[in-house]
Amino acid sequence: MIQMELGYIFLKELHFHAFHGVMPQERKVGGDFLVSVRIGYDFTKAMQTDEVEDTLNYAEVYALIDEEMRHPSALLEHVAGRIGKTLFDYNSKIQTIDLWLTKVNPPMGADSTGAGVELHLINDKTRG
Description:
Oligomer: single chain
Radius of gyration: 16 Å
Largest sheet: 4 strands, antiparallel
Shape: elongated
Strand content: 25-35%
Mean pLDDT: 92
Structural class: alpha+beta
Number of strands: 4
Distance between the termini: 23 Å
Order of helices and strands: EHEHHHEE
């Protein structure tokens, strides 16, 4: 029997048009964002059963992220923190979340493909 302490699922470069930013124009016309997330948890049971109820459902994870991206915030740090909290609340078995939130072509006077935040979150409730 295989036993795992921690495995990961991920969703990579989810595309959103959202209204986050400090500048009034960003909140009015919006901008393009990318979200990537890597979620760590023990999915030993799913490896054995091949049943979706024994793992995290990618579509449900996406829907939670999509919902948070619909709520405008001035700071990407705030949006990323909300996403992290929502995911931990969704499933108490989640141990870690790595999240990247990128604002594509940010209005900062530089030729750039993006700027953003990266979080590594640990669910204290899963620590022994």
